[in-house]
Amino acid sequence: MLTRVVVLLLAGIWISIEAVSQAAVQPKESPAFPDADDLPISAEYHYRLSGSARPFLFWITRDDVGSGRLTWRRTRDGTQSLELLMGSDPERAPFNTNRWGYIREVVRGDSAELVAIKSGTEEETIDEVRAKANGRDGDRTLLFIRERITPHEARASTALVDVGDASYRELSLVLEEMSKVRDWEERVSARPRATRPGFLVALTELIQSGVDSWLAASGSSFKYGTRTLVYIHRAKPYELRQSDVEVLRDVTLGGRHYPRLLRGAFRLRNPSTGYQSHFVVTYGIEGALAGVPVRITFQPRWWLRTQLTLDTSASAAHTAPAVP
Fold first, then answer.
1. What are phi and psi of 18, to 5 degrees?
2. pLDDT-derived band at 299, boundaries 50, 70, 90
3. 308/297 Cα distance (integer angstroms)
4. What is the DSSP letter of 40?
């Protein structure tokens, strides 16, 4: 029943395959592969993945069924990379579930090169989950996305590839396979004005705006309101909104006590189709964890909820996260 532990979280964050409107595409070579490995790490955080299902009236929760990693890289000239990797561990997840995803956005000025990988199949009901558990062919397909964004244009290439039983722990091998793909479908569009070059860039900026609002309050009544940014995904504009930001005091998450955190409700929307997805991010506002997600919660169905919670024992911040 928890087979969609990771793919649903990713679908809510950067839209499921079916939710993207179908523009005309033509097979072409993919854009240049972002080379971020040589960029020095400025901060890196690790997360534990848990999933909860409600087949009847009560929630059934499984802890530590996978993990995640959020990495910031930055050079002196301002080039930066934002990376998010998350996945279920087939050895621990129910039904030996193997669902995972990866996003990497390399930003240089107002241009960016992006790579994304996500599990290519999804289920809508618990019965579909159970049926898939008996035949795991859907676990083998990954959606590859490469995208190059300039100040005036967005060029996205996609491919569906059978990668066998590779899990998120084999990211480097999957990226190598990705570099060998030649049959890509490409979409090109003009970049609208005032759009961010990727989801992680927009998310980081919105989280930082919450931190800045808290600091500007200077102990007075904290109010955030609502803020919306537009970013590019697969050569199309999407809206990311943060609202209902509240202060949490004296909370314990993942075994660690926090004197103060902010929790914001996020809505992701495809303007061309009206499709919406919602998730909640709880993030730090002080010290090394200022602007760092402590917990990400997504509940795409009434019967399913997934969470990424910061594992402070495995995380190491070299500097504060870079803000685009």
1. -70, -25
2. confident
3. 7
4. P
What pLDDT, on the 0 to 100 scale, is given for residue 52? 72
Q: What totals of helices (H) and strands (E) does the chain contain, helices first?
A: 4, 17
44 versus 133: which is more confidently predicted?
Answer: 44
Q: Looking up tokens 């500007």, which residue turns up?
A: 216
| CA gap 196, 233 in Å, rounded | 10
Cβ-Cβ contacts under 8 Å for 268 (sequence gap 6 or more) = 12, 13, 14, 15, 238, 239, 240, 241, 276, 277, 278, 279
pTM: 0.83
Cα distances (Å, whole numbers) of residue 262 to 59, 153, 237, 309: 25, 35, 27, 14
Q: Are 321 and 43 in contact (CB under 8 A)?
A: yes
- By the 10 Å C-beta count (0-12 exposed, 13-18 middle, 19+ buried), 50 is classed as buried
Residue 274 DSSP SS3: coil
